[in-house]
Design goal:
CATH architecture of the largest domain in chain B: 3-Layer(aba) Sandwich
Structural class of chain B: alpha/beta
Number of domains of chain B: 2
CATH class of the largest domain in chain B: Alpha Beta
Order of helices and strands of chain B: HEEHEEEHEHEHEHEEEHEEEHEH
Strand content of chain A: 15-25%
Distance between the termini of chain B: 32 Å
Oligomer: heterodimer
Helix content of chain B: 10-25%
Number of helices of chain B: 9
Shape of chain A: globular
Strand content of chain B: 25-35%
Number of strands of chain A: 12
Shape of chain B: globular
Radius of gyration of chain B: 18 Å
Helix content of chain A: 25-40%
CATH superfamily of the largest domain in chain B: Nucleotide-binding domain of ferredoxin-NADP reductase (FNR) module
Strand order of the largest sheet of chain A: 3-2-6-7-8-9-1-10
Chain lengths: 344, 278
């Protein structure tokens, strides 16, 4: 459904959403932008630069209880699924694409019920960036600077109003119930097309080859020295895993309450770059070297997820580059394999 | 997959420990009463066994399907925090169980064929499920030879049971220890030395099942290939740190596979393509 929203109606629309959704939006905080629960709609900014943590973390939180046990009786377990109604606001295309990858991965049977329930109760309102946000972004190469699905409503600035693409029943319902949206006029569609053409011109490729070839090239580079070279300065901190909008590996821990009658099993993010990620009780660690771990992270995104779901698991947001203490850049790694191809 | 099935795999079942038998200093055999769903397993599958407050660990099922209508058996080595705690549980106490997980051995592939089973160390625990499945229906299989390797006579798992298998005579049991002790009059040498004698199998038709610590796989596979077995007919069960069992948490991933869902049993033909596997 193609609709339009006047500038002055954006905040009232968000306030309307606030009636039955917890609102999560990008806000400025200590000189940077972060996604957080919105207390005042006046804090909202549509012109934000990329946040350190991606918004998907509100659907797949860093810590979340998944089971409760009754220890007083027979260790009976109950499923815990916390899925409050929430609206994630003004998401960029890269982050929307990431959520659509997470949707696919976590819906594969046996599916992740906690994610699926949270996702069901999450409304996603996108907001298209006008220009590339920074040089570490490789979204243009990846084609993820555009969002075609994964949102309920997607706003693009045109001639003093927002063009609103509405996807599916959930988006249509709130758009209609709010009363703030009008049908998009044919001139709005022309304006959108023009804006998109102009926008394409502003993005530049940062990769020296065709991303369709990446999975084949990376697989071919499995035993290449590039992994050793690129991981040399890695400190195995796992920051790249934490900021990645498509990392979903986790571990679980049990916590017994002070009465010793109840136990909560909590899942929390884990990361394949951490040294003990593959350790088993007998002491064996299956991915011992930093280079093997870095290779696994890259191949998981570009080869393994692609084999399973037909699409790359990297949306090119560039967060792993920004937050790497060792300045390891996925752009350099990709360009290395493109360069190797050129030489062979 | 029904909603009930979805919950079954993620929701631990509170189970009563019916019996705990001490096998040796490090190994105990647990008989655990479970619900019907958990009884529908295949040799080579595993369950997540847990103690709330401590955690869960993947343990392969050592009993054979249909061997009991209300319980499964697990052979557990005390090696980590959870397994140590499990060793201190007694009959009548409760543990949690989820599963069964993984693919298990495809028995259809074994039927009518000669079978070589290679069990190194604790590898005999999952393989006992396969061995008992074959024993109870032996006429449907060809010649079955079981090669067992242990570090020393004291660490040989299931001594009494192996003796029963020997006496029964349905399968050809051969044992070796890396290091002998006084009183041991059997074969001495690493497990590959058992391949020096004729196994009386038709190698181009035979199926092999190999389970053991990572280090033995390469050597045993070399022997099997040298004998003339096909890569597709050699099955291995691999070990990784399964946590969720749902193919999500990432700990058991080997290249593009999630061992908890796509394994733990893989043919050597498939394993060879996985650079991280062995």
């Amino acid at each position: 459904m193609k609709l339009a929203l006047n500038h002055k109606d954006l905040l009232p629309f968000i306030e309307f959403l606030g009636k039955d959704h917890a609102l999560v939006a990008p806000v400025e905080d200590s000189g940077r932008y972060i996604f957080r629960s919105l207390e005042d709609t006046a804090d909202i900014t549509t012109e934000y630069k990329q946040t350190p943590l991606p918004p998907v973390k509100f659907i797949y939180p860093d810590k979340e209880p998944i089971l409760k046990f009754d220890l007083s009786d027979d260790k009976h377990a109950e499923s815990v699924i916390e899925a409050p109604s929430q609206a994630l606001l003004l998401l960029r295309p890269c982050d929307i694409n990431a959520i659509s990858i997470m949707d696919e991965v976590l819906s594969e049977e046996p599916s992740d019920l906690n994610y699926i329930e949270r996702r069901k109760n999450t409304l996603i309102v996108g907001f298209e960036c006008a220009t590339p946000c920074r040089e570490n972004a490789l979204c243009f190469d990846k084609g993820t600077h555009n969002a075609k699905s994964g949102f309920d409503i997607y706003l693009t600035e045109i001639n003093g109003k927002y063009f609103a693409e509405v996807n599916g029943e959930k988006g249509e319902k709130v758009a209609e119930a709010s009363g703030f949206f009008n049908r998009a006029l044919s001139e709005d569609r022309v304006a959108l097309d023009n804006r998109r053409i102009e926008r394409e011109e502003k993005f530049e490729e940062v990769l020296s080859g065709n991303t369709d070839e990446l999975s084949t090239l990376l697989e071919g580079a499995y035993d290449n020295e590039l992994w050793e070279k690129s991981s040399k300065k890695c400190v195995s901190c796992g920051a790249c895993n934490i900021v990645c909008p498509t990392c979903y590996c986790y571990d679980v821990t049990d916590e017994v309450d002070i009465t010793t009658n109840h136990c909560t099993r909590t899942r929390h993010w884990d990361g394949c770059q951490l040294r003990n990620f593959t350790s088993v009780a007998t002491g064996e660690t299956f991915r011992k070297s930093k280079s093997a771990r870095l290779r696994h992270r890259v191949l998981k995104k570009e080869v393994y997820l692609k084999e399973r779901f037909g699409r790359s698991g990297c949306v090119g947001c560039g967060r792993c580059i920004d937050h790497c203490m060792a300045k390891i850049s996925i752009i350099d790694i990709y360009n290395d394999v493109f360069e190797d191809k050129g030489q062979n | 997959m029904t909603i009930k099935d979805k919950h079954r795999l993620r929701l631990p079942f509170s189970a009563i420990v019916e019996k705990v038998e001490e096998l040796d200093e490090h190994h105990k055999l647990f008989t655990i009463n479970v619900e019907e769903n958990l009884l529908k397993y295949k040799p080579g599958q595993f369950v997540m066994v847990g103690l709330p407050g401590i955690g869960e660990a993947p343990i392969s099922i050592t009993s054979a399907p249909l061997s009991s209508n209300d319980s499964i058996k697990l052979c557990i080595r005390s090696v980590g925090r959870l397994t140590e705690a499990l060793h201190s549980t007694e009959a009548g106490s409760r543990v949690t169980v989820r599963g069964p997980f993984g693919n298990g051995f495809d028995m259809e592939k074994f039927r009518g064929k000669d079978v070589v089973i290679v069990a190194a160390g604790l590898g005999l625990a999952p393989l006992r499920s396969l061995i008992d499945t074959i024993r109870t229906d032996k006429r449907r299989y060809g010649n079955v030879v079981l090669l067992i390797g242990a570090r020393n006579p004291a660490s040989l798992l299931y001594k009494d049971i192996i003796e029963e298998w020997r006496k029964e005579g349905k399968i050809d049991v051969r044992i070796t220890v890396d290091v002998a002790e006084s009183g041991w009059d059997g074969h001495v040498g690493v497990i590959t030395t058992l391949f020096k004698e004729d196994l009386y199998i038709d190698p181009t038709e035979a199926i092999a099942a190999v389970v053991g610590p990572p280090v033995v796989y390469r050597f045993v596979i070399d022997e099997l290939l040298r004998l003339g077995l096909f890569e597709r007919n050699i099955f291995l069960s691999l070990e990784r740190r399964m946590r969720c069992g749902l193919g999500k948490c990432g700990h058991c991933q080997i290249n593009g596979l999630y061992l908890c869902q796509d394994g733990p049993v893989l043919s050597y033909h498939d394993v060879r393509k996985l650079k991280e596997a062995i």
